[in-house]
Write a structure and sequence with these properties.
This protein is α/β, with parallel strands linked by helices. It has two domains: 190 residues, Rossmann fold (3-Layer(aba) Sandwich), CATH 3.40.50; 70 residues, no CATH class. The protein is built from ten helices and nine strands. The strands form three sheets. Strands 2-1-3-6-7 form a five-stranded parallel beta sheet. It has a two-stranded antiparallel ribbon with strand order 4-5. A two-stranded antiparallel sheet has the order 8-9. Helix 1 links the parallel strand 1 and strand 2.
Length: 299
């Protein structure tokens, strides 16, 4: 068992509903937190690293492993939660969106450069990686050449085996209950922050059992409800649906990547058999017992 703490950061290539390279390596450390999130972009990863340090105070005995995501992914924080919009470049009609390829590339290298310098200043052991091929000769890379050279490309890509996601009813219900609880807490928090003194209670608003004679207050509540409906729709789409097809790297692909990422770490036969058993169950559509190492605290 390796003394110290391991913190990992990334997107679904780092944290998923089955073990990733991070979870496999985490079994070798005496303390482990996986800060990855599905769909995350590099702004989220940057913020997660800094926030993690605020909660945990990195020191020389810690190890930080970062797997940066696609350059095109766009993150934003709204009403108590991070949202991940994917690639939102201008469309073929020229409609203005949130970012552009050059801008996202510029942001990513600035975030990575800042993180590298930040961790070096604390004498923290870290490894910065990417799983996608990035342009090696763009104007931005030429500016951030040292940072680019410090971001190692690892052999981790989508698999060629499509399989249906099968979630047992019990697990699906538990997942839905957790999501609904989180949604309820965010709705309460949002209501407390923006509700005026003339507003009815949250329960009355959500149930529709209220009457407002003031047009201005009525418009405020309508805007509040639009946010609520949008958030509820987002959560419903996020829940795993039976029958979806998944091409994420399988556990044994992650096992191979884990050996590449930390070649000096001995991955025991028990850990390898564990990854093998979960992949076997996954492909057979059977249930398996796995829970990621969530952060103990985060915004």
């Amino acid at each position: 068992m390796i003394k110290g703490r391991l913190f990992t950061f990334g997107c679904s290539m780092t944290k998923y509903h089955y073990p990733t390279w991070a979870d496999i390596l985490g079994k070798n450390w005496e303390y482990f937190e996986n800060w990855g999130t599905g769909g995350a972009g590099n702004q989220f990863i940057f913020n997660s690293i800094i926030e993690c340090d605020q909660h945990n105070r990195f020191n020389e005995s810690d190890t930080v492993l970062i797997l940066w995501s696609a350059l095109s992914r766009y993150d934003y924080y709204q009403f108590g939660q991070w949202l991940h919009a994917g690639s939102v470049f201008p469309d073929k009609f020229g409609k203005v969106q949130y970012n552009c390829p050059d801008g996202q590339e510029m942001f990513t290298y600035a975030w990575a450069c800042a993180v590298h310098q930040y961790l070096k200043s604390k004498n923290v052991k870290f490894k910065s990686m990417r799983w996608l091929d990035w342009d090696s000769d763009s104007p931005v890379v030429n500016c951030y050449r040292d940072t680019y050279n410090e971001i190692e490309k690892i052999d981790l890509d989508f698999n060629f085996i499509s399989y249906p996601i099968r979630v047992e009813r019990k697990n699906a219900i538990e997942q839905r209950e957790i999501s609904l609880y989180d949604r309820e807490q965010r709705e309460i928090s949002l209501y407390k922050r923006i509700a005026g003194t003339d507003w009815p209670s949250l329960q009355e608003i959500l149930s529709g059992r209220y009457k407002i004679n003031d047009n201005f207050v009525s418009q405020e509540i309508d805007e509040f409800l639009k946010i609520i409906v949008s958030e509820r729709t987002r959560i419903e789409k996020k829940l795993i649906e039976i029958g979806d097809v998944d091409k994420h790297p399988l556990p044994l692909q992650h096992l191979k990547a884990a050996k590449e990422i930390c070649p000096t770490v001995e991955i025991t036969s028990e850990i390898q058999e564990w990854a093998q058993s979960i992949e076997t169950s996954l492909l057979a559509g059977k249930s398996y017992d796995f829970c990621p190492a969530y952060p103990k605290q985060r915004l």
